[in-house]
Specification:
The chain is α+β, with helices and mostly antiparallel strands. 52% of the residues lie in helices and 12% in strands. The protein contains 36 helices and 17 strands. The strands form four sheets. It has a six-stranded antiparallel sheet with strand order 1-2-3-4-6-5. Strands 12, 13, 14, 15, 16 and 17 form a six-stranded mixed sheet that branches. Strands 7-9-10 form a three-stranded antiparallel sheet. About 7% of the residues have low confidence.
Length: 784
């Protein structure tokens, strides 16, 4: 089997074998990525009725697009399987680096926070499945894969049950793995989502104790234990387990389904409460206490009254339980009700202000403005937008600005299923604009029951007043700065100066002014006077208001790219993200800083957070491939590059180069050279392309071509300081084995302050230089 090619998949190695088939690692020869192939038992594939039912269920499961569910790419059949006659059914799944939970538990019970985090991620994946009426039926440690990035992937959804669909097994038969089967599965009863909740409870019990709650030497003994016995208390096996965790496990493992969690959202809420350190409000389900029915009449009436109140609360706010599960949100561009196009600057500013206020809440994922503004004056169904942005809910609204009075109307809409959750309107004078913005954000947070920390609460409760004229000047400055052109920067500069003249203590205007000088520094070749002005106004903004995340982000940017002070940059960017954990640009910058510090796994985490926060930003995604490349996740780098090219097209020309770089590292020189030669023909102005092409020639033993392209690189690089020409020459000389020349060019790269130089210490293309004293001397000039 190993080495065979099935369809367009080359089998590389066997990963595992179980009752439901054999799994192999394979290479997708079309998309050049690793996948997992699972060949299903012949007993299933030969029975046409079972085969049809399985395919239908697997198709439904493959539609589950969620981070905690293993992706199913394809269902197929083959006659190419060695030693097998006839067609063989197989499924193609995503391949992940890591280990199953079963393998992890073999090393002993897990830490509490790790066990709770795995349970939360599993519950999130099950929530997605249950929303689609799919019951897994076989949740167990073997089917929970933990990636090297600590992400949980639920496996084997292709074998799940669709509510209301056909049964894969015959009437009266059981399905699942006996130790993790629910009471109703063991007794041949009908399963529903509460059966998955039982199984997850068993898994949590095992993660914390290292053993399963129901035991026996053979299957019938285990079945008897499930049906008739109460498991040993988790607290007896691990005394430091909290009462809340005990109650969660006990509630999951109630034999009567009515006594269990009734849906996965309720379980998820209690697990999150444990993680966040708040007191869980779990109702005791102790079987002994549950049987005590001798209640005095007065208490019985009191209980009936409490039940009545609960029913009233539910019907007054019928969506409160749905709102509990909203973890991500997008504020769509607010609509200008004035009919005056000249007020667009103000309405766009209000959209951004509301995004910024909500972004302060660390427990909520808030989509960044770059992605949001692509929906301005675009009419699309709510569910379609939510899917594109990968959010649970959307905020829509209108703004009416008349004189100095502002009226903003907002509504909160849950995306799937689409439900109108809440709407309200607010009216304030422009002088109280900050109070208005904070109140709207706080109201939304309250509606979705998201946790707001005391510090976040303070920031949302700002009651600062502002001169209306000053605020309008600032908003006009912000609107023009967003154009990111020299003309827009000039206009924004003028507005910010006017705002400061009217109010010398208005921190936001100083922050905006600092930004204009930062842009000028890029356009003027990083002139010192612009950077000095940037520093001056950034420090002034912090002096007046130290709660502004963007100022710290800009300071980190300056220290990173211009001062080459990596540790100082990290300190500032961490402060920026503390103030605004939803800053995609902040996460993007932090990822780059972490790469230079050699902390690649952290860099990947920050990069992926940035892409989640700004899913439609080509700049954020185009940097993603390099992050995976730097972390030596080469297959993921190629996969991400191809996906980014598909999404953004020619806007990401750098992606081709990353694919070439990655192929070079994998030793596939011909493919890399083909890509680079094609890119070079398309654009003879990008010295990065010819620089890497020269290196590819050198490594593929085409020395003449390497030296010729290296000479062309040096000719093109004249009068183009700051564009890494010396750096690229050092890379090629390294590939040619000319280490001394490489070090000379690297020194010139440092002296001319080429922009890529901060990555010198972690650039794998220069690894062979690390043992040279001169390399250490050059690197010592950077603050790592």
């Amino acid at each position: 089997m190993i080495g065979s090619t099935i369809s367009h998949y080359k089998i590389l190695e066997k990963l595992g074998e179980g009752g439901m088939g054999i799994v192999y690692k394979a290479q997708d020869l079309k998309l050049d990525r690793f996948v997992a192939l699972k060949f299903l038992p012949l007993a299933v594939t030969k029975d046409e009725e079972s085969k049809k039912r399985f395919i239908q269920e697997a198709k439904s499961a493959s539609a589950l697009d969620h981070n905690n569910i293993c992706s199913i790419y394809e269902i197929n059949e083959t006659e190419d399987l060695p030693a097998v006659s006839g067609e063989q059914l197989f499924i193609v799944m995503a391949f992940y680096d890591g280990e199953t939970l079963k393998q992890k538990i073999k090393n002993g019970p897990l830490k509490f926070d790790e066990a709770i985090d795995i349970s939360i991620q599993t519950a999130k994946g099950l929530r997605k499945a249950h929303e689609k009426d799919i019951i897994h039926r076989d949740i167990k440690p073997d089917n929970l894969f933990i990636t090297n990035d600590s992400d949980v992937k639920i496996l084997d959804f292709g074998l799940a049950k669709i509510v209301g669909g056909s049964q894969l097994t015959q009437m009266g038969s059981t399905y699942g793995t006996i130790s993790y089967m629910s009471y109703e599965q063991t007794t041949g009863g009908e399963v529903d989502q509460r059966s998955d909740i039982w199984s997850l409870g068993v898994v949590l019990y095992e993660m914390l104790t290292g053993e399963t709650p129901f035991k026996g030497e053979y299957e019938h003994a285990i079945s008897y234990s499930i049906v008739n016995e109460t498991p040993q208390s988790i607290g007896e096996l691990r005394t430091e387990v909290s009462d809340d965790i005990k109650r969660i496990v006990d509630k999951c493992l109630q034999k009567n389904r009515e006594d269990r969690y009734q849906n996965i959202n309720d379980l998820l809420k209690d697990l999150k409460a444990i993680k966040e350190g708040s007191k869980s409000q779990i109702t005791s389900t102790d079987p002994v206490k549950a049987k005590t029915m001798n209640i005095k009449p007065a208490y019985a009436y009191l209980g009936m009254f409490a039940l009545l109140i609960a029913v009233i609360i539910y019907f007054v706010d019928p969506f409160s339980s749905e709102a509990d599960v909203i973890e991500s949100i997008a504020v769509l561009p607010l609509e200008n009700l004035s009919g005056d196009a000249k007020q667009e600057y103000f309405v766009d500013g209000m959209t951004d202000a509301l995004i910024s206020e909500l972004a302060n809440i660390s427990a909520l994922r808030v989509i960044s403005r770059t992605s949001i503004m692509q929906y301005k004056k675009v009419r699309k169904p709510i569910q379609e937008i939510a899917t594109e942005l990968n959010v649970d809910a959307l905020v829509e609204g209108t703004v009416l600005y008349d004189g100095d009075q502002i009226r903003i109307t907002v509504q909160l809409i849950k995306a799937n299923p689409e439900q109108h959750l809440w709407a309200s309107d607010y009216k304030r004078g422009l002088r109280n604009i900050f109070e208005l913005q904070g109140e709207v954000a706080q109201s939304i947070a309250n509606e979705i029951n998201v946790t707001v920390t005391p510090d976040e609460q303070i920031r949302l409760s700002s009651s600062k007043e502002v001169d209306p004229e000053v605020y309008k000047l600032y908003m006009k400055g912000y609107y023009n700065a967003d154009k990111i052109t020299p003309e827009g920067t000039k206009r924004s500069y003028d507005y910010y100066i006017q705002a400061i003249e009217k109010d010398p203590n208005f921190a936001l205007a100083y922050m905006g002014l600092a930004g204009t000088y930062l842009r000028k520094s890029f356009w003027s070749g990083f002139a010192d006077e612009n950077l000095e002005k940037f520093k001056e106004y950034a420090e002034k903004a912090i002096e007046l208001d130290n709660t502004q995340s963007n100022v710290y982000r800009m300071k980190a940017l300056l220290k990173f790219w211009f001062d080459w002070d990596m540790l100082g940059a990290e300190k500032d960017i961490k402060k920026a993200l503390e103030l605004n954990p939803n800053s995609a640009m902040g996460r993007d910058l932090y990822s780059q800083i972490l790469i230079t510090l050699g902390r690649f796994e952290e860099a990947v985490i920050e990069r992926e957070k940035a892409m989640e926060l700004d899913p439609l930003s080509h700049a954020i995604h185009c940097s993603g491939s390099y992050t995976y490349y730097a972390a030596e996740k080469y297959d993921k780098a190629i996969e991400h590059s191809l996906r980014t090219i598909e999404q953004f097209g020619s806007a990401c020309s750098f992606e081709d180069q990353i694919i070439a770089w990655t192929n070079i590292e994998k030793g596939i020189y011909d493919k890399a050279i083909e890509i680079l030669e094609k890119r070079w023909e398309m654009s003879k102005r990008d010295i990065r392309v010819i620089g890497e092409l020269s290196r590819a020639y050198a490594l593929s033993k085409q020395r003449d071509k390497a030296e010729r392209t290296l000479k062309e690189l040096n000719e093109l690089s004249m009068n183009r300081q700051g564009h890494q020409a010396y750096y690229l020459s050092a890379v090629t000389h390294t590939a040619l084995g000319e280490k001394e020349k490489a070090l000379d060019y690297l020194e010139k790269s440092y002296e001319t302050r080429e922009w890529f130089f901060p990555f010198v210490k972690v650039d794998q293309r220069l690894d062979s230089l690390h043992s040279y004293p001169k390399f250490e001397e050059i690197v010592s000039n950077l603050n790592y």
